[in-house]
Amino acid sequence: MNTVVKKSTVLVVEDTLSEMELISHYLRESGFSVFNAVSAKDALNRINENLPDLIVTDIVMPDMSGFELCRSLKRDPKTATIPIVVCSSKSEAIDRLWAMKQGAAAYVTKPFTRDELVQVIQSILS
Prior knowledge:
By secondary structure, the chain is α/β, with parallel strands linked by helices. The protein is 43% helix and 18% strand. The protein contains five helices and five strands, in the order βαβαβαβαβα.
């Protein structure tokens, strides 16, 4: 009997193109299906078209922060169960605590290694 393994889909929300490219590359290389959004508002629109299995988001973005995106997704029954990984250069304990209070499943500090990021995501999805 052949079992089909479904590729997990990850939405990367990042306004810095080089960071978005790096994160997306690491995830695709690790077998994930990836789509991107350049802002939190863009992410909300894309999520309506295609529900991801997990979201990786930056905090500091124009218009709406990653924290606001987390709150908005956790309030919506359609997206409330999607795990969110905050990936930010903000490394203070208060930022990590605040992300968890907004509903984030994990917090990865930039700079990070490919293994750090992939391990966190795999542990959440397994």
